[in-house]
Amino acid sequence: MFASSFLRSRIVTRSRPIVATAILGLSAACGDNAVEVQTFVIDVQVTLPTTFAQPAASGARVLLTSTERNVTDTAVADAQGLARFPRVLPGSYIIASSLVLDADRALALTGQRTALTLNALDPARVITTAPTTPFVQRLSGSRLGDLVIKEVYYPASRTPSGGVYFSDQFVEIYNNATDTVFVDGLLIADAFGPAGQINPTTVPTPLQAQAGSVFVTSIWQIPGTGRQRPIAPGQSIVIAQDGIDHRGDANGNPASPVNLATADWETFNERPDGRDLDSPTVPNLTRIVHRGGFDWLLAVFGPGVVIFRTPNVAALDSTLVPGTTGTWVTRVPNEIVVDAFEALQNGNSASYKRVPAALDAGFVFASGTYTSESARRRVSTTIGTRRVLRDSNNSSADFEIIARPTPRGFGTP
After folding, report:
1. Greatest pairwise CA separation for the chain in angstroms
2. Per-residue pLDDT of the chain (413 residues; tens, 9 = 90+)
3. Nearest CA to 64 among 1, 131, 127?
């Protein structure tokens, strides 16, 4: 009778050599005419994504499945990420690996306290002789933290003569994940409502009581078909109001703190009077809806900014602001929001929050308007060369106000 195709594997140290000769004779038939079938060792090296803190996927569960006999054997990777199958028959096999990380281990490996599952799969491959090197499987899994708003330069600047200048505002979006993220179709919007008691009659937005949504004024979208706009882990995109060198351009402000001529996108509000500047070197976002002035002005007293995804932005509800006759906003459900940021006028303006606490439990504030200050997300940790930014859904804890904007720059952990 045929013997079992597999014997249960066991974990061994990596130093054990690969055996290229037969280690067990299996009977292909009963009786005196039995035929010995040689078996050999297969090692599988399981590695974590390159952006993780270490390469070895210790504890990964590896399945070796014979496509001919529909038999599966299991091994567990050791501390070096090596899983060993000591007695394998020649044949066609599927190799699959998986690793479940709890929140604590995920924090140590990625900088994000988010439980996740990693997987890898090799299609059926024919193995007829003992491999001289281990098969390598690199795990991948769900994104961690995904995209976050990294910096919002909103207070704007003053001109050398003391005038005000706001065309140098920008928002930076960062890939805080461990995998490449495609930003095609990503939407960015500003939350409706005042940032504080700007004058004696200013009151909070009447829409803030609807905690399940954030209500936005204008919406812009990154164009693309779905996989045209990749952002690698630890990289970012800068969205400028006007994509020029504001310090040196004739249309700019010599006292501006930023050069946005290398921005990835700009918000160009095309209109008959041509009042909004259209940079010839920086591509435009798609204008979905614009309610406001000639440009996409972020509130210099403090904006709320959200990034979100939806397959049908036109289907989002438009809402008339209570107590007004013609002020419309768009309702963005919390569940489609990727990240949110909020700044208010000062530390006493909490009652004016526009972004629901479920999306952002806090807020930051600058020292005033047209100060050239900026709000920048703090660095939580560094893994290799990749900075992991703090992401607790609380702008009070996650952001700091800095003296000058730093597009594509970082603070210290």
Report:
1. 105
2. 333 333 333 333 333 333 333 333 444 444 555 567 789 999 999 999 988 999 999 999 999 989 888 889 999 999 999 999 999 999 999 898 989 898 899 999 988 887 777 888 777 789 998 999 999 999 877 545 589 999 999 999 999 999 999 999 999 999 999 889 999 999 999 999 999 999 999 999 999 867 689 999 999 999 999 899 999 999 999 999 999 999 999 999 999 999 999 999 999 998 888 889 999 999 999 999 999 888 999 999 999 999 999 999 999 999 999 999 999 999 999 999 999 999 999 998 999 999 988 889 889 999 999 999 999 999 999 999 999 999 988 899 999 999 999 999 998 77
3. 127
In this structure, the answer to whether residues 221 and 276 fall within a common structural domain is yes
Secondary structure class of 213 (helix, strand, coil)? strand
* Domain match, 128 and 247 both: no
Strands 40-47 and 135-138: parallel
Question: Domain ends where: 141, 157, 187?
Answer: 141
Report the candidate in 342, 320, 340 with the shortest Cα–Cα distance to residue 329.
320
First to last CA, the chain: 65
Inside any domain, residue 409 = no
Which H or E run includes 338? strand 337-342
Domain tally, the chain: 2
pTM passes above 0.85 = no
Tokens 């560094």 identify what position? 382
Evaluate whether 57 touches 47 at the Cβ level (below 8 Å). Answer: yes
**Cα torsion angle, 382, 385, 386, 387, sign:** positive
**Are the CB atoms for 400 and 375 separated by under 8 Å?**
yes
Helix (H, G, I), strand (E, B) or coil at 383: strand
Q: How many CB atoms lie within 10 A of CB 298?
A: 23
Q: Give 209's Cβ-side CA count (13 Å radius).
A: 3
